[in-house]
Every structure is written in C-alpha cells, then in structure tokens.
Amino acid sequence: MARNILILGASYGSLLGTKLLMAGHNVTLVCRAKTAELINRDGTEVRIKLRDEAAHRAIFSRDLPGKLDAVTPANVDLSRYDLVGLAMQEPQYTNHTVRVLMVKIAAAKLPCLSIMNMPPLPYLKRIPALADMDLEEAYTNAQVWERFEPGLVTLCSPDPQAFRPPEEAANVLHVGLPTNFKASVFADEKHNKLLRELEADIDAVTLDGHDVPVKLKVFDSLFVPLAKWSMLLTGNYRCITPNEPQSIRDAVHGDLKRSQTIYDHVDAIARRLGADPQDQVPFAKYAKAAESLLKPSSAARAVASGAPFIERVDLLVKLISHQLGVPNAEIDRTVDTVDQKLNEKIVQGGSGAQ
User: Known Gene3D superfamilies for this protein (predicted)?
Assistant: First the structure.
C-alpha cells in the first residue's frame, strides 16, 4: 500500500524521499517557494553510486513509481500524511512559518522520523538518563520541540553523506557515502509496523537488477543513532578550525591517535547512557570511511559561508559529558573553536556579511 510521507527539508530530504519514491510511496518535500516551484516543474535528481560501478547514476523522481510534490510550510495539509520526516538543519526550525507547521504536526500527533544530525529534544527525553538533564542550551530554540510527545519522535542515524553540488540547481543531490539510515523504533507498535513496512519496501528495490544502496534499517534500541555522535565529534566538528575549514579526512587522519581518543570517549558516554557496544560503530570502520570524505563537513561549510547558527551536537555532547561528570578537554576545545567562529560571524554582521 502506498504511504504518504511529508519531509521537511528538500536537500538532504530528497535522498530519503527518492528511496521512498523508488519503493512506490508518495512524498511531499517542504521547502522555500522558489525550490518548491523548481521541484514541481522538474522533479529531483539524486546521484548515487551502485556497488561495483565506477560512476554515479542519476535517479530522477519523474521516472519513479511514487509521486513527488513540493510545498511551502504554510501550504501543508497534514491530513494527507502517515509519517513526517525531519530533514532540515536544526536552526531552520526556528523560521516562523516552519515553527507554525511544527506546532500543527505536534497537535496532529503524527509520528516523526528525524534524519537530522541534531537529535530532536523529545527523542532525548525517551532516554531515561537524559530525560531530566538540562540540554536546551544546545538548541537554537528549544521551544520548537516542547509540544511533541516523546514517543512520537524517533531518530535515524544520518550516516549517508550527501551534498548539493554548488554549480547545480537546488533540486540536485550528490551522495558521497551511500550508507544506511539506522532508525530507532517509536513507542507505539502501530507506528513501528509502518516503519518496518517502509524498511522492507525500500530493501526490495532494484535498479536494472542491481541492489540500490542507502537503506532504512529499523532497530529496537534507542541508542543505535547515537553512534553518529562519535563520528560528528571526531570528524565533522573538527573540520571547523580557527582558520580555514579542513576536510573530514584531514580532521580524522591528521592525528589518528587523538581522533581515536575522542571517538572512544564519546562512545563511552553513549554506553553510560545505556548503549550496548553492539549499537556502536568501531573506530577502525569509521576511520576507513573517513578516508574518502575529502570535503569539509556541512557544519564547517556553513560556518565558513557566514551562517550565524549551525546544529550543535558538539555542545550537546559537552553538556551531557559535564552533567555525567566525565568532561573531555578535546571536546571542550572543539566547542570553544566553534563558538569562536560563530561569534566572529555575528560581530561581522552575521550571515549577510560579505
């Protein structure tokens, strides 16, 4: 049965959207008016490399069995949808029209699957060790999340690395690392049934007889997505330096021993919260993947281009580590560097400064 999925965020969201469209489900992307007009006219293009193929394949939404459309936040009819995907960067949810839509989503009690790096606050409330921690400081505006029932919000580890090529239109996405979305379950079994249905449908898709990477994998553990934190703190946020941004590869491999120390510390924090070692990704596997990540992270690129706010998983992990009584000097240093770079931009006049 075709399901109707609403995804907030047309850039990274188009990757999950394309996988759902290939499986025969219908997708609505929520984005700016100009991008919505472009997508409704031309569709989306996601470039992905299949196993054992040298070149990326372009997958066009118009060729897929599911139907795609795009709308602005103010024009969403929530009664049409079975599930909401959260694929915007966390600061974007503070935009007034997006925030109004979020209030409506919370009131409609629709299950929400996040593919953000920054875990939504209601999701963290589902983890007993975090439920009473003071973590709001890490969010651009924590009030965005206060109306959501924790059990209706789950998180995917957004491991697939993708970016919009700067020379391309806003409806194009290039997948650099085609790994899986690893999702935790919802509180309600009815919603998990839907999640597992989508998992199976995406898994069954082939292209010219070939398996298509980037699956949706569902896990019973709430801690599987937290494996991403070790990667973000070791690689992505350390792309932000006092000077120019560096690639994820250089951030990780510039001092491999130091990188492993940070990675292991964040892994240990997740285990303190309740994660099983099996929920985690070994450092060696991450370091190997990082060898092919030759660009700075999206966070580093955003800071370099003058963004006054970015997702702050670095600050979130710092707050958790201090409240657990296990601070780490390297993590604190990373947070200080990010703060310093963001403050520079604010002093210069924020995102409008050229």
Answer: NAD(P)-binding Rossmann-like Domain
